[in-house]
Amino acid sequence: MAWSGRAGVALAVAAGVLAGGLAGASAVAADSGAGGGLPYERVERLGPGVEYREFSVTASRGTVHGHVLAVDLRESRTRLDLLTPGSVAARQAVSGLADDRQAVGAVNGDFFNITEDQHPGVAPTGSSVGPEIGSGRDLKAAVPDGQRFGPAMPPGETTHDVLGMGKDRKLRLDRLDLRGSVRTPRGSIPLGGYNQYALPVGGVGAYTADWGTVSRQRAVCGTDTSRGAGCSTDTYEVTVRQGRVAAVAQAPGAGAIPAGSTVLLGRDAGADTLRALRVGDRAEVDSRLTPTLSRVPYVFAVGGFPVLRGGQPLAGLDTTTAATRTAAGFDASGSTLYLLALDGSAESGAGLTIAELASVMRELGADSAVNLDGGGSTTLVARDPGAAAVTVRNHPSGGVERPVANAIGVFSRT
């Protein structure tokens, strides 16, 4: 893979028809053939193994301008990680997330609990839909499919889907399932949630210091099939500290959870199960995110639904609704990452359909890819060599960055 750090060396190209009916637009850097068929208008080296690129394509709704971070993980001085605001239930602009960790670039990540219009008086948590692993630590599990935000997923996909990088520095698509329980003298209680904004009906969820300070009320609202369904009034909380039940409460609480403590929240039948516990009872909480496909532990993982797998677009991708999109994908070797963000509607009302997004990611060089949060969340930032801070490279919808739940961060040592 021959990558150039030079930008603006242009030559005229005929508009060729790309996969999915997309046509190349404008000019390209003369030596930007870094794997993939899109003509690049600009290529800029940000650091060892990291490039920023720009392109334009003509899609079904008009011309779309895209921004790409391409990351070669064969370069030992590059790495990836999940960027978060420090709590699962919190939001921060992508530029702030990147600067706080001194990342050289980043794009926004998963869809998240952004509003609670259907549950008046319930605070939105800002928490993401899918699982999160950051710096090798399990941070949260996936909400039920019916509780997610975002466009319809392709048939057979789930909120458990992730894109992640293992300790072997290989990128993969996978699914992360929660495996957890609470061991008590009266038996074992299965966990149905871990630091997530929505619990399954009848379930018990565990909340740790990673959750943050936001109320856990949202976790008992909606159902497994309807995000807008009402909130359960049959709830119960148990605080476990040092292997013992330390406190109980009738309703979901708020505020910081001390390190070393776990709050168990039950709804409906789960609440009845927790009511059997008494202060002083032994209770051991165990939880972990288990990959479906990989046996290699993940360094980072972010939720997103697949649009491209094994070089082929998934069946049933939407071909109608065009929007501002964010995506992440990788080549067949799992060694090169492509992060994509489109310009927002303030610059162009065109956008891409999900089916077109899959085609664009394939043209970038991706063999597998996921759709991430789009619209007003779509943001790509990059830091010029020697600069103290990142700059926003795309044009977010509305002209300003939206605070988001997480981001994919790119790091490069010079």
Rg over C-alpha atoms, rounded to the nearest angstrom: 22 Å
Describe the largest sheet.
9 strands, antiparallel
- What structural class should be given to the helix and strand makeup? mainly beta
Dominant shape: globular
Helix content: under 10%
Mean pLDDT: 91
Number of helical regions: 3
Total number of β-strand segments?
A: 28
Oligomer: single chain
- First-to-last CA distance: 20 Å
Low-confidence stretches: 1-21, 24-35
Strand-residue fraction?
Answer: 35-45%
Summarize the structure.
The chain has 414 residues and is mainly β. The protein has 3 helices and 28 strands. The relative contact order is 0.22.
Can you describe what's shown?
The protein has 414 residues and is mainly β. The protein has helices at 94-101, 269-274, 354-364; strands at residues 10-11, 23-25, 28-29, 40-47, 50-59, 62-72, 78-83, 105-108, 132-134, 137-140, 161-166, 171-184, 187-190, 193-194, 204-207, 235-241, 244-249, 261-267, 284-291, 298-303, 305-309, 312-313, 326-330, 336-342, 368-372, 380-382, 391-392, 407-412. The strands form five sheets. Strands 2, 4, 5, 6, 21, 22, 23, 24 and 25 form a nine-stranded antiparallel sheet that branches. The protein is globular. Residues 1-21 and 24-35 have low confidence and may be disordered.
